[in-house]
């Protein structure tokens, strides 16, 4: 696809209850593109959800403290 010259990124939004799906493909992961993807998703869903959850994307997550400050992301058992 596209000859492997430039990666393609997918913005995926899923509504929690109905599982309605919105997918938008883009060639970058800049903040302005992320904002545009959100606007397109909100227009598609005809509304804005109360909560939005992200899956560890670099554009949104600056630092992760899931297990406390200074702890590894996946502590050994």
Structure commentary:
With 77 residues, the protein is of the alpha+beta class. It has a domain at 2-45. The protein has one helix at residues 31-45; strands at residues 9-14, 21-26. The mean pLDDT is 83. This is Mobile element protein. Pfam families: rve (PF00665). Residues 3-65 form the Integrase catalytic domain. Keywords: Membrane, Transmembrane, Transmembrane helix.
Helix fraction, binned, reads 10-25%
Shape: globular
Radius of gyration: 16 Å
Name the poorly predicted regions: none
Query: What is the mean predicted local confidence, pLDDT?
Result: 83
Please give the largest β-sheet.
2 strands, antiparallel
Q: Number of helical runs?
A: 1
Strand order of the largest sheet: 1-2
Structural class: alpha+beta
Beta fraction: 15-25%
- The first-to-last residue Cα distance is 41 Å
Order of helices and strands: EEH
Pfam families: rve
Protein name: Mobile element protein
Domain Integrase catalytic: 3-65
Transmembrane segments: 7-25
Structural features:
alpha+beta; 16% strand; 77 residues; Integrase_cat-core; two-stranded antiparallel sheet; transmembrane helix; transmembrane; globular; 1 helix
Gist?
The protein has 77 residues and is of the alpha+beta class. 19% of the residues lie in helices and 16% in strands.
Write the layout of secondary structure elements.
Blueprint (H helix, E strand, L loop, with lengths): L8 E6 L6 E6 L4 H15 L32
Antiparallel strand pairs: 1-2
Organism: hydrothermal vent metagenome
Keywords: Membrane, Transmembrane, Transmembrane helix
Pfam families: rve
């Amino acid at each position: 696809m596209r000859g492997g010259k430039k990666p393609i990124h997918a913005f995926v939004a899923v509504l929690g209850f109905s599982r309605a799906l919105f997918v938008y493909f883009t060639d970058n992961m800049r903040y302005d593109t992320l904002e545009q993807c959100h606007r397109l998703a909100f227009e598609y869903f005809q509304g804005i959800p109360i909560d939005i959850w992200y899956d560890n994307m670099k554009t949104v997550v600056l630092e992760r403290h899931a297990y406390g400050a200074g702890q590894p992301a996946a502590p050994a058992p």
